[in-house]
Amino acid sequence: MWKGDDVNLSGLHDWVRKRLPKPDKCARCKKIPPVDLANKGIYDRNLDNWEYLCRRCHMLSDGRLNRLISYSKAKKIPDRECRHCGKQFTPGNAVKRYCTKSCARSASNSNRMKNKTCLECGTEFSGYPPKLTCSEKCKRARKVHQQTARREDAEGKST
Q1: What is the model's pTM?
Q2: Residue ranges in the chain assigned as alpha helix (H)
């Protein structure tokens, strides 16, 4: 199974990882413990061409961090106004309409509690969507009216 110089990238990384001791800190910033085994440009078995780096230093050396930052700036979603409180905020995604979860809940609750007109007596009241009448008394009266209307319809159709 020995491939010599024809080894693939993961095999070469494994070979170097077994032979190059891992230091306590990143080889570049000397602050963070290293995570990645990085190549300095030439993929060969020379241990001088390899170093252990933290993720940030590795991405900086590869140029990946700069590409990631420029890509995220290009895809930045513009600031919006919260639909509930009117405060300006930067949304985390294109769908977000409220600045916080509490604003979203408050807006949802206030939408449910809009003023309505009672279908039985005509008075103004507020309540959650399934509520059609202002009180239990009106609810029972509406039910009685509906039942009598159904009976009348059934009697009219049967004759």
Answers
A1: 0.44
A2: 9-19, 55-62, 64-74, 101-112, 136-158
- Token pair, residue 77, equals 């979603």
Q: Is residue 38 within a helix (H) or strand (E), and if so which, with residue range?
A: strand 36-39
- 76-115, pLDDT tens digit by residue? 788 899 998 999 998 888 899 999 999 998 887 776 677 8
The Cα–Cα gap between 107 and 128 comes to: 13
How many whole angstroms separate alpha carbon 73 and alpha carbon 98? 22
- Distance (Å, whole) CA 100 – CA 64: 32
Contact 98, 82 (CB under 8 A): yes
How far apart are the C-alpha atoms of 129 and 27, rounded to whole Å?
A: 63
* Full DSSP string of 120-134: TT--EEE--TT--SS
Distance from chain centroid for Cα 64? 24
Q: In angstroms, what CA-CA distances link 139 with 31, 40, 115?
A: 71, 79, 17
Instruction: Enter the DSSP assignment of 76.
Output: P
- Domain boundaries in the chain? 4-74, 78-112, 114-159
